[in-house]
Structure formats: structure tokens, C-alpha cells
Design goal:
The chain has 495 residues and is of the alpha/beta class. It has helices at residues 4-16, 23-52, 56-81, 119-130, 144-153, 170-176, 190-203, 225-237, 254-272, 288-298, 348-356, 371-380, 416-421, 435-441, 450-460, 471-494; strands at 97-104, 107-111, 134-138, 163-165, 183-187, 207-210, 216-219, 249-252, 302-305, 309-310, 315-316, 319-322, 339-344, 363-367, 385-388, 409-410, 423-430. Strand 5 (183-187), helix 7 and strand 6 (207-210) form a beta-alpha-beta unit.
Length: 495
């Protein structure tokens, strides 16, 4: 087996060869990746079932089909994305070429997470490939079956010189972070995210950190409580709450809380039956460590719904807590499990104050028909992304960037935003050696004078509403008119 340093050096050598810069090569690799999904989707679903007991529908909708459609979007559009851009010019550069080239960073490290172990590992990989990078993939060892699938399957479809997979735990991850990468993309906990960020700082390596946090969900009395309850419960209990953008807690009035709990009892019974443990539609907690952490949050709390647990099966029933205080254990860190606490606030102002007293969340949910209050919350809070009158849905809109802010992360991806994340935009100014251009630029040269300074300040001054868009056509027209007049003048003089 090669050492990590040898693997990374091999990838640097492959990138230096220029192989991944070729757009046809990239397209072939992307199509091979899509073929991998299409040919092995059954194995993907089996791995997710083994790790998290994910139902087939959750496995396909939230991971497999998501990956396929995200990749199709990239394949359909990336040739347009890689094209050189010609940004607007000012009068100073009216005779110059102004360009933006799309450069790959080089060798990229993608570190996936265990809660959506295929999607969160492979979606960034597709974007990095499209941008022209070599990629080293490190799946989460916690989701061992998914990690094994990626390690064994990916090399059968992608170029082994340019794209590699390594497995391992904390020791291997620590060793990996000592290597020199050109970009690092990490998805996971804030604790490890800080370690990754520190490692990046040592080498001045740019990075994207997709972390998490306690995503609040505000409900007011104007919301449709029946629809709101279903949408909130679905967002919370899908994947057994092990979702980075799951509603972490609810903020609402006492009246809304009572309506929500009453409706939730009916909805959960409809979805999972009298004994949710027997339902095939509920995932399990990933391991005993996380089970013990979650079970400790329920002990001593006021359980309005659920609360049942089975350590042997890593099962925790969909649980709703009431009479929750900000100081309670369940409110200290991201829950990341099927536990939904409700805290009482009387209005949007109290909700804003509560949210702003904590770290900026990855997602924020507002259930209200009161447009004024919605805008009040949006304008006075900060979060990675918003979803109004629904949960999780903004994640699947590929035209929206997905990412955190502050403690919930930095950087974003999905669709073109993923391509942009793994792309360095290299600026370029092109000048020629024309006599006219040199004459206009000569005022910058010594010896300096008041006249030169006056000319430069005049030409450099920014003017609102002045556009260079039609200047070439105006100049061409002006030259044409001047030429015509000159010919007429000379002809007259000749006569």
C-alpha cells in the first residue's frame, strides 16, 4: 500500500501533466461517474441500509437520485461554465482585452460525512472533477458500508491516476491533513471542522467547511398548522433526525405549541403506526456512541410524544419535548437525532432575540403567512439558508448556493456554485502595442506634471450610468463619419 504522501504526490504529478485540464477528459470522467451510479444503484441502497437502515425511498430520493441529477446538471452545463468570461470594461480599458479564465486549483481533498455518506462524499467530487482538479476522496469511517462501496467501486470507473480513495479513522485523517493540498472540502461536525481549518491555515490552503448547528424553526398563529406540522416532522425525523439542516428546535407561542403537539400525535401515528419501532420507514442511530449521547438528552426532560428507546437496536422513537428551557442539555449543542424540543416565545421579536443570542445556524425555518414578520426575521438574523413554510427543500434547489456562515461553515456548493467552489478565477488584462494606446497611456510615465495628473484623474473618475457596452459601436461610427468627412474635404481640396 502507498503512503498518504506518495498518493498525494502522485496526484500532484498527474495534475501537473495537464491531464485533468482537458475538457473532453473531464466530460468522460463525469459520464463514467454517472454510469457508476446507474449500474450500481442497488449496491448504493444496500450500503445505506447497512449503515443507517435507510428505507429505499429515503436512500433514492435523498442520496442516489440526488447524486444522479446533480451530476446530470453538471454534465449538461459545465462546458459553458469553463469558458473564459469577458467582464464589463471601463473607459480606461476601452482598447484592452479584459478576461477571466477558469483555473482548477490542483489537488483537492474531499472529506465526507456519515449521515448522508454517499451524497455528501460524492456530490463535491463531481464538482471538483468538472472544474479540472485531481481529487482524493476520504469517506467517513463511521458509515463503514458506504465507505467500502466508494473505495471499491470508484476506481473501477474513474481514472486511477487522477482520482483516489483512502479510508481510515481519526489517526488516518490526522495524517492526511498533514499533506499539502490545493483545496480542502470538509463536511461534518464543527469540532473537526476547526481542526481541518487549522490544518488549512498552516499551508494557506483554501477550504470549504460544511458544518451544522442548531437550526431554529419559528411558527406563528397565522401558519396552517396541519400542513406545517407534516412538513416540520418530515424534515426532523427523516434519517432519524441525523440531518445537518434538520429543524433543531421550535420557537412558538403556547397556543401554537398545543396545536402542534396535538396534530403531531395524529401525523406520527399515521406515518409510523402504533409502534414506530416496527415501522420500516424509520432509520436507526448510526452507532452506540451517538445513541448514548441522544438518550441522555431525553432523560429528565418533559416528553410530550415518544421517548421510547432500544439500545440493542439503536432505536429512538420520534420524540417531542415541551417545557424546554434554554439552559437544558438538549439546547446546548446540535441534536442530530429524532428529538424535537419546543421553546415558548410570544412573537417574532422574541424569536429574533433568541436566535441571535446563539451561533449562526446552517438553516432557518419560518412558518407564517405574515409577510411583515417573515421579512422582519429574515432582515434581522443571519444563517446559511432559509426555507419558508417548508423544511429541507432549499437544499435541493440547484440554483441556490448551499453553505453555512460563522460556526455553521464557510463556502457553498451545488450546481454551478460547486463548480465555482473548486475553480480559481484567474484575471487577465491584454494590451497591444498600438501607437494610439501608448499615447493615451503615456501620462502615467515620469516626469509627472499637473497636466498629466488632471488627465489621469479625469479619465479614471467613475461615472454613474455610463456604460461601455456600446462604446465600440459609437467609436466605429465616429471613425466612419470622420473618414467620410475627411474624404469629402480632400476631394474638394483636390478639385
Amino acid at each position: 500500500m502507498m503512503s498518504f504522501s506518495d498518493i498525494v504526490q502522485q496526484l500532484h504529478t498527474a495534475f501537473a501533466s495537464g491531464k485533468t485540464r482537458n475538457v473532453d477528459f473531464r466530460e468522460k470522467q463525469l459520464k463514467n461517474l454517472l454510469r457508476m451510479y446507474e449500474e450500481t444503484h442497488t449496491e448504493m441502497a444496500q450500503a445505506l441500509d447497512s449503515d443507517l437502515r435507510k428505507h429505499k425511498q429515503e436512500a433514492y430520493v435523498m442520496e442516489i437520485e440526488f447524486l444522479m441529477n446533480d451530476l446530470r446538471t453538471i454534465i449538461f452545463n459545465f462546458r459553458e461554465w469553463v469558458k473564459m468570461e469577458k467582464p464589463p470594461k471601463t473607459i480606461v480599458n476601452m482598447m484592452d482585452g479584459v478576461f477571466i479564465y477558469k483555473d482548477p486549483y490542483g489537488v483537492v481533498l474531499v472529506m465526507g460525512a456519515w449521515n448522508y455518506p454517499l451524497q455528501l462524499s460524492l456530490a463535491p467530487v463531481a464538482a471538483a472533477i468538472a472544474a479540472g482538479n485531481c481529487v482524493l476522496i476520504k469517506p467517513s469511517e463511521v458509515a463503514s458500508a458506504s465507505s467500502k462501496y466508494i473505495a471499491e467501486t470508484l476506481p473501477k470507473y474513474l481514472d486511477s491516476e487522477c482520482y483516489r480513495v483512502v479510508e481510515g479513522g481519526a489517526k488516518e485523517t490526522s495524517e492526511l491533513l498533514q499533506q499539502k493540498f490545493d483545496y480542502i472540502f470538509y463536511t461534518g461536525s464543527g469540532r473537526v471542522g476547526r481542526i481541518v481549518h487549522q490544518a488549512c491555515s498552516a499551508n494557506l490552503t483554501p477550504c470549504t467547511l460544511e458544518l451544522g448547528g442548531k437550526s431554529p424553526c419559528y411558527i406563528d398563529k397565522t401558519a396552517d398548522i396541519v400542513i406545517s406540522t407534516k412538513r416540520i416532522l418530515w424534515g426532523k425525523f427523516i434519517n432519524a433526525g441525523q440531518t445537518c439542516i434538520a429543524p433543531d428546535y421550535i420557537l412558538c407561542s403556547k397556543q401554537v405549541q398545543d396545536q402542534f403537539v396535538k396534530e403531531a400525535k395524529s401525523v406520527l401515528k399515521e406515518w409510523y403506526g402504533e409502534n414506530p419501532k416496527q415501522s420500516p420507514d424509520l432509520c436507526r442511530i448510526i452507532n452506540q456512541q451517538h445513541f448514548q449521547r441522544l438518550s441522555s438528552l431525553i432523560k429528565g426532560a418533559n416528553v410530550a410524544i415518544g421517548g421510547d428507546m432500544d439500545p440493542d437496536d439503536r432505536y429512538i422513537a420520534p420524540t417531542i419535548l415541551t417545557d424546554v428551557k434554554p439552559s437544558d442539555p438538549v439546547m446546548q449543542d446540535e441534536i442530530f437525532g429524532p428529538i424535537l424540543p419546543i421553546l415558548i416565545v410570544e412573537n417574532a421579536y422574541e424569536a429574533i432575540k433568541f436566535i441571535n443570542a446563539r451561533d449562526k445556524p446552517l438553516a432557518q425555518y419560518i412558518f407564517s403567512n405574515n409577510e411583515k414578520d417573515r421579512e422582519l426575521i429574515i432582515a434581522n438574523t443571519s444563517c446559511g439558508g432559509l426555507c419558508i413554510n417548508d423544511t429541507l427543500g432549499h437544499f435541493a434547489v440547484e440554483s441556490l448556493p448551499f453553505g453555512g456562515v460563522g460556526a455553521s461553515g464557510m463556502g457553498s456548493y451545488h450546481g454551478k456554485y460547486g463548480f465555482d467552489t473548486f475553480t480559481h478565477k484567474k484575471s487577465c488584462l491584454l494590451k497591444d502595442f498600438s501607437a494610439l494606446g501608448e499615447k493615451l497611456a503615456s501620462s502615467r510615465y515620469p516626469p509627472y506634471s499637473e497636466g498629466k495628473l488632471s488627465f489621469l484623474t479625469t479619465i479614471l473618475k467613475k461615472r454613474q450610468g455610463f456604460s461601455m457596452k456600446f462604446l465600440p459601436y459609437i467609436l466605429t461610427f465616429g471613425v466612419g463619419v470622420a473618414s467620410t468627412l475627411l474624404v469629402k474635404f480632400l476631394s474638394k481640396d483636390y478639385d
